[in-house]
Amino acid sequence: MNKPVVLITGALTGIGRATALAFARSGAHLVVSGRRLPEGKALEVELQQLGAQAVFISADVRHDDAVRELVDQTVARFGRLDVAVNNAGTEGQPGLIVNQTAESYQATFDTNVLGTLLSLKHELRVMTTQKSGSIINISSTYGHAGAAWASVYAGSKHAVEGFTKSAALEVAATGVRVNAVAPGPTDTGMLDRFTGTPENKAALVAGVPLGRVGKPDDIAAAILYLASAGAAFVTGQIVTVDGGKSAG
C-alpha cells in the first residue's frame, strides 16, 4: 500500500486530534470528521501543513444518512478507505444509576453505541468490497469493568466492545480487521468533565500503577499499530492502554 486513506470520527479534540496528527506525520491521506466547522477547518489546515492530503467533513454519527455520506465522500475523494477510527463519543451525564433518565441514556447511547454501529455498517460496506481494511473502535477501561457513577457510559462502552468482537468474526474471511483500543484515564477534556475536580482526578490516577494520566499520543500510538501491517494477524481484540489501571 502506498499512502493509506484514513477516516477519523470525533477528530477535533483529544484522542481523535492526536491520532489525526500522528497519521498525518506518517504520510496518510486523511478525512477528519466532527460537528464544529471552524475547528474542523482549522484542523484540516494543520494537517495539510504537515504534508498530508486532508479534508474535514462535517458529520453527525447519530444519523445513518450522515454517516453514509461521510464514507461515500471519503471514497469519492481518495478512491478507497483503508483505515477507520471510530472515536466520536461522549461521557454523558455522570451520576448514580438511580438518577439516570431515558434522556440521559439516549444522549449517551445515540453517540457511543448507535454512532459506532452506523460507522461500522458503512465502513464495512466499502472495506469488504475492497477485501482489505482496518477499523479501530475507541472503547474505555470501563468497557470491560463496572464503574460507579458512570453506569450509562460504561454500558455504552461494553456495547462497543461487543460490536468490535462480533464484527471482527463476521468479516474476518474478507481480509478486514476490526479491533478496539480501550484507554484508561487520559488527559482530555472528557476526563476533566467526567472527574469534575482536581481532587477527583487525583483519586482516579491513584489507581494507576504508573501514577499518571495518559496522553492522547499514547492512545494514538496504539491506534497506529492496529492500523499497520504489523498488526495484520490481529483482529477482534481489545487493546487496553491504561498505565496498568485494569491489571488489578
Architecture overview:
With 248 residues, the protein is α/β, with parallel strands linked by helices. The chain has eight helices and seven strands, in the order E-H-E-H-E-H-E-H-E-H-E-H-H-H-E. The protein has helices at 14-26, 37-49, 64-78, 102-130, 151-171, 189-195, 198-205, 216-227, and strands spanning 5-9, 29-34, 54-58, 83-86, 133-138, 176-183, 238-241. Strand 4, helix 4 (102-130) and strand 5 (133-138) form a beta-alpha-beta unit. Helix 3 (64-78) runs parallel beside helix 4 and helix 4 packs parallel to helix 5 (151-171). The model has no long low-confidence stretch (mean pLDDT 95).
Terminal-residue CA separation: 40 Å
Q: Do you know the CATH architecture?
A: 3-Layer(aba) Sandwich
Q: Order of strands across the widest beta sheet? A: 3-2-1-4-5-6-7
Classify the fold: give the CATH topology. Rossmann fold
Assembly of the depicted chains: single chain
**What is the CATH superfamily?**
NAD(P)-binding Rossmann-like Domain
* Uncertain residue ranges: none
Tell me the count of domains: 1
Defining key terms:
248 residues, alpha/beta, seven-stranded parallel β-sheet, globular
Task: Describe the secondary-structure layout.
Blueprint: E1 5-9, H1 14-26, E2 29-34, H2 37-49, E3 54-58, H3 64-78, E4 83-86, H4 102-130, E5 133-138, H5 151-171, E6 176-183, H6 189-195, H7 198-205, H8 216-227, E7 238-241
Parallel strand pairs: 1-2, 1-4, 2-3, 4-5, 5-6, 6-7
Helix pairs in contact: 1-2, 1-8, 3-4, 4-5
